[in-house]
Design brief:
This protein is about 20% helix and about 40% strand. The chain has one helix and four strands, in the order βββαβ. It is elongated and about 40 Å long. It starts with 9 loop residues before the first strand and ends in a 7-residue tail after the last strand. The chain binds zinc ion (ZN). The site of zinc ion has 8 residues, from loops. It comes from Ruminococcus difficilis. This is Type II toxin-antitoxin system MqsA family antitoxin.
Length: about 80
């Protein structure tokens, strides 16, 4: 897999994912991702992107203003 911006190689990494939902902000820590070695572009696997959406939706329902959560693979919640 190569970077669509600079054709650099991706390496497996983890990142912190921020989402601003207007009424609140969600921060998901330690999200598995691919990071370009050259330009630092971050991409997620489809499964991770889907899981992130689920986590964010779930957190947004019980939100105050800022939430910080750990990424988990669990589908149980
Ligand atoms: Zn790149």
């Amino acid at each position: 897999m190569t970077c669509y911006l600079c054709n650099g190689n991706y390496k497996q990494s983890t990142t912190t994912h921020f989402v601003d939902l207007k009424k609140c902000m969600v921060i998901v820590k330690h999200v598995p991702c691919w990071e370009c070695e050259q330009c630092g572009e971050i991409v997620y696997d489809d499964a991770v992107a889907e899981r992130l959406d689920a986590i964010i939706k779930q957190v947004a329902e019980m939100m105050t203003e800022i939430a910080v959560v750990e990424y988990t693979d669990s589908k149980a919640a």
